[in-house]
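Lab notebook, bench 4. The sequencing result for the construct came back, and we need a structural model before the next group meeting so we can plan mutations. Quick request posted to the team channel:

Model the 3D structure of this chain.
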Amino acid sequence: MTVAYALIRKPITDELLIFEQLLGNRTEFINRFFHLGNPNGYDPSTSLEKEKIIKKAIESLRINIFTSSEFIYDMRYNKSCKGGINGISNHALHIVTNDRNYKTVDQNFNFVFSQKEAIERSFEHYYNLVPYLLIYSVSIIDELVFSLLKDDANQRLKTVKEFRRIIGFILFNEYTGNSDKSKSEAIFKELSKNIVLSCPKCGNENIIERADCELFFESEVFLCTTCFGNLLSTKESIKIIEKAIFGSMN
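Done. Here's the predicted structure in token form:
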């Protein structure tokens, strides 16, 4: 767990903030980085208005499944937030910490004398928080990348990636208990009503169910139930997916 928390810190607290600034206001960031050039103007460890940067990045997402910029800020930067990564990643990086929010307890070293219960709590925390932050990170990075790749093929790929994240988010919330299974089943049922894909190979009409979505999450492919052909090989099928996910977000 020491290695896991140490490695997650830099990408989530530093590098992701660069991508968020580029997504929220690319011209302004390039001006600070390239034209002004002073590292104090773009160093993530300085007093940048991080929550405002996160909020603006979230507002730039075409598909927004993240309702609270404050929550994402707290999970990454708030030192007093017990559920965030700031304090525990500092424990992973430093043998002793003196900050009052995550001070090393007496007669101890950070992560050195962890008992079984403490290790289990760390695992539970890591697998409840980090997947959420990774889904968020990929949302920001993909939005930025696909804003530069405007051709039709890449825009169709963007829709596929967005739908995969939605499915992943539903499954993640179900797994962690953030929403009960009945709620996720209702969402999958609604998707089944709106996503019927015609196979370009055999013409079979395929109603997309939960099992299809779970396979799609793993492979980014929907398979025909008759001939096992790829249902996402046509522009029309992507348009159906796009219509369904935009409808589900409204």
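Residues 22 and 28 are 8 Å apart (CA to CA).
Will bring this to the meeting.
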